[in-house]
Design a protein that fits this description.
about 300 residues, alpha+beta, Lambda Exonuclease, Chain A, 3 domains, two-stranded antiparallel ribbon
């Protein structure tokens, strides 16, 4: 049984909240305030996982697919683009450690097949400016930022977000919809409203979640954003963040340094805690990997890349 939430004291580091709030920050804080502290305020990042690699591969492939002329957006073209994107990704230090993973390609191929089962890409009109478009706007006094996966404007104006995982159970959908409702609120604030939001779940059997945009949904999403920002400001002023233990903690990269999970853990933000996280392979935002380290390719990895992709 998960432990109850606990307020955890953090060290004084002089760190401040980011100037803008994103939907991913909101999700991180809502799930566990202490994880938000590690990720967003301290800026620790874990190396790319199989799942984040798969997500990036799919997002980049779909962006390139929808930049093609509609008549050229076939499933065969999508698979070809996926291989091209993969070869580029796995040639970089951030992703090359997954070049020999033989699960990624079949999962990505299955995800693309799910996309074509859910919609007909050749029938969509998508403007290049509506792909991976940046959003920066003030919502009820909070600076909100993000990047839209895709917008379509006919027959209805829609904001679409791709998810590489399986469709979650119904009780988890409201939290997932908050992200796209925030994007819709941003579009409305900029005088470019939308009619619907949609989530494309490309994992497993695939699934499409589509909801209408209406004032109460937008207001609820913005309320969550402003509440999160207010609470994060309070937490930083008090130097205490709430750790929320759940079954998902076993997957959390910060678990060994979390006082709610490890009574011997040093205060988050302290030099000892930072060293512990660095020893786990996490790095601070803006810190580049050491040249010649595990992220560098060699002749063997070149052969692996050719073999798998």
């Amino acid at each position: 049984m998960p432990k109850p939430p606990v307020r955890v004291a953090v060290a004084e580091t002089g760190a401040s909240l980011p100037g803008h709030v994103s939907a991913s920050q909101l999700d991180s804080y809502t799930s566990c305030g202490l994880r938000y502290y590690f990720e967003t305020i301290l800026g620790f990042r874990q190396p790319e996982t199989v799942w984040t690699t798969l997500g990036t591969l799919l997002h980049d492939t779909l962006e390139r697919l929808y930049r093609l002329e509609p008549v050229d957006r076939s499933e065969a073209a999508a698979l070809r683009l996926m291989v091209e994107v993969a070869r580029g990704m796995f040639s970089t230090p951030a992703y090359c450690q997954h070049a020999d993973n033989r699960e990624i390609r079949p999962r990505a191929e299955a995800a693309l097949r799910n996309l074509f089962a859910l919609e007909a890409p050749s029938e969509l009109e998508v403007a290049p400016s509506d792909l991976e478009s940046a959003v920066t706007v003030e919502l009820d006094g909070v600076a909100f930022t993000g990047r839209l996966d895709r917008r379509t404007r006919a027959p209805l104006r829609r904001i679409c977000d791709y998810k590489s995982g399986r469709r979650p159970p119904a009780y988890r959908l409201p939290a997932k919809l908050t992200q796209v409702y925030l994007y819709a609120a941003a579009a409305h604030a900029e005088g470019d409203p939308v009619d619907e939001v949609e989530l494309f779940y490309l994992g497993g059997e695939g699934g499409l979640v589509r909801r209408p945009v209406y004032p109460a949904a937008l207001a609820a999403a913005v309320d969550q954003l402003t509440l999160m920002r207010r609470d994060a400001e309070r937490d930083l002023a008090e130097l205490r963040f709430t750790a929320t233990p759940t079954a998902l903690c076993r997957f959390c990269p910060f678990k060994p340094a979390c006082p709610a999970q490890n009574v011997r853990a040093a205060p988050p933000g302290s030099a000892e805690s930072d060293a512990r996280l660095a020893g786990l392979g996490l790095r601070r935002r803006g810190h580049r990997p050491v040249e010649g380290g595990a992220g560098e390719r060699d002749a063997e990895s070149e052969d692996v890349l050719e073999d798998v992709w």
